Amino acid sequence: MATVTIRNVWKYYGETPAVKDLNITCPDGSFVSILGPSGCGKSSTMRMIAGLEHISSGDILFDDVRVNDLAPKDRDVAMVFENYALYPHKSVYENIANPLRLRDVKEATIKERVEGAAKLLEIGHLLGRRPHELSGGQKQRVAIGRAIVREPKLFLFDEPIAHLDAKLRAHMRGEIKHLQRTLGTTMVYVTHDQLEALSMADYIAVMHDGELQQWGTPSEIFNNPVNAWVAGFVGEPAMNFLTCGIKGEGDKVSLMHRNFEIPLLAGQVRQLNGAAQTGTARMGVRPDALSISMTKPDEAAMRGEIFVNELLGGDMLVEVALDDCRIRVKTTPEFAGKPGEACYLTVNRDKWHVFDAGDGHAYF
Amino acid sequence: MTDVSSLSGSTRDMGAQLFRARAHSVEVEARPRAEISHKPRNFNPPLPKHYYFYLMAPAIAILAFISLYPFFWLIIMSLQDVTIGGGEWVGLKNYTKLFTDARFLEGWVLLAKYSIMCLGLQVGLGVTLAVVVNSSRYEKYLVTALLMPMMMAPAVAGLLWLFLYNGTFGWYHWLLQSAGILDSASILAGSNTAMYAIVLVDVWQWTPLITIIALAGLKRVPRDQLEANMVDGASPLRNFFAIILPNLYPVLLIAVLLRFMDNFRFIDSLLVLTGGGPGSATKILPVYLFEVAFKFFKLGRGAAIALTLLLVTILLGKLLVRVFEKPQGGKG
């Protein structure tokens, strides 16, 4: 159990910065997910926490103790690797027992702890096998077993379920979250899958190009993204963006597009704060903050043409062509529109976002 | 898989069968799963066996001429008392006589001593060097430098070391004598030191081979396993024994096999250096075989010794493979 503080950390590979001035504090006992696309520096960050990678500049602290110069074995962390990294020449039992053996724990204690961990992960019947005799999901459980057999200060999970099939992945998400709650140990979980981060983490650190974009709870990240990049990365299906003009003055401001004009809500005008009143802005709307109908509901509706319908089981995703751009709308499977037909989109203005056309920061 | 046999029976029907299989599979699609009575046909039936035979025939013929023919001649010779112009059948006499031949038995003991010393030193040193080279920034240059001894013809290497060991102007001789380790006798003339001297030459020339092979093995040691073990709490030394060494076993097996077979065959440098002497202190079996066959021209007995040597080499090779494969636990 530990609070992990990352303070002004930089990581350079040669001349290339991989992590730029990172500041994160993971509270004790929390589940923190570092989310970002590949090459964003999230794995470098995790490897620096583990001690596998040199820290170019800045400090990493566990409970106010600087660990920069400690070897991995002295940091008291447990890590689960993306490729499981099981030892092929050792049995499952020996794989899980390895961290204890390296610490010269008594044989009786090892047996008890390994069997306890195996029971928790439901792999008790596999203890005699070798890693090559296991399926992907089983290997992944063994890797987790190796991490939890000891009581480390910190868990580091590096995309542990990225290589499992979709169904098993969904199952393991719940399992890992439950495990972390049960053990109460601080966990740093690296992933590129926004769904994993949203569904499991207490806090998410979104990274892009080596920089921390946003730190917050999953609902903060999802509902109040700080910029257009975060808004576009988080959420599936992805947010729709439309470049619009801003027109109006005083407390009557609206977003202009070739075929619609939507007024902002009163509070939102204040948030826009006169910043870009004469320029352009990017409107961002999630597919579920839009509603679609075949008849014109009101003046503020956007007129478009149905491009394609995708039935996703319980939902229907309709792609609507709006002049030269496409907008995706989530609706019910009962929606009867056919491709090629005209339709109207209404924006739920409580849930839309406006971003700066230049640097992409969010006004609201 | 019963379909395969029916296909391979006659190649002429193959086209027709393939066509039918295709038509059949379309029909199967529409029916529920439980009613499928025929498995889909194998679309890549094995080619008839004689086809492979024709392809391999030239290679087999050449191999037979340069390898099998002499081998069978060797067996015949080992059963004869060979003289110029012919031989006289003596049955197994050449073999039975070996058991009472003190030089032959001593040759085995010396060969075992020589091989074990060479292999032990070469593997130990070779792996250590590989680890050092692997973690060095100057890896490329070091590898080039390491390769040099291997480039040298063994006989030339022997001559080179002959100078170094020389009792009058030899550099090593002088060095050892100055350090008080060696008394005045020449290195190669001392019956104790001669064996170590020839081992050293072999180690000097062939350790790089083990290093190169081990280096290749080190490159494929999975990094994540090393890192996992480090996070688990292993020191670099424990990491070496727990992860690196088990991963090196398969390549080390090849290296050791190569070197041990070479030890049983290569006597070039040894002949140049000591010729088996002093007395018979370095007369390992291959040297003795060389003497019997090509100095005393007892070709029949020589053939018997050679075949014994071959048999032991094969058996030891098998044993070695078995011992080394064990810690792997059958990977995939």
From TrEMBL, chain A:
Domain ABC transporter, first and last residues per copy: 4-234
GO cellular component: ATP-binding cassette (ABC) transporter complex, substrate-binding subunit-containing
A biological-process GO annotation: carbohydrate transport
Classification via PROSITE patterns: ABC_TRANSPORTER_1 (PS00211), ABC_TRANSPORTER_2 (PS50893)
Keyword Nucleotide-binding: yes
SUPFAM superfamilies attached to this UniProt entry: MOP-like (SSF50331), P-loop containing nucleoside triphosphate hydrolases (SSF52540)
One example GO MF annotation: ATP hydrolysis activity
Statement: the UniProt record of this protein carries the keyword Transport: yes
Pfam families named among the record's database cross-references: ABC_tran, TOBE_2
Family the entry assigns: Belongs to the ABC transporter superfamily.
The protein, known as: ABC transporter ATP-binding protein
TrEMBL record, chain B:
Places the protein is found: Cell membrane
Record field: transmembrane: 51-76, 114-134, 141-165, 196-218, 238-258, 302-321
Matching Pfam families: BPD_transp_1
GO biological process: transmembrane transport
Predominant cellular place of this UniProt entry's protein: membrane
Organism domain of life: Bacteria
Record's bilayer topology term: Multi-pass membrane protein
GO terms for cellular component: plasma membrane
Protein name: Sugar ABC transporter permease
Native organism: Paragemmobacter straminiformis
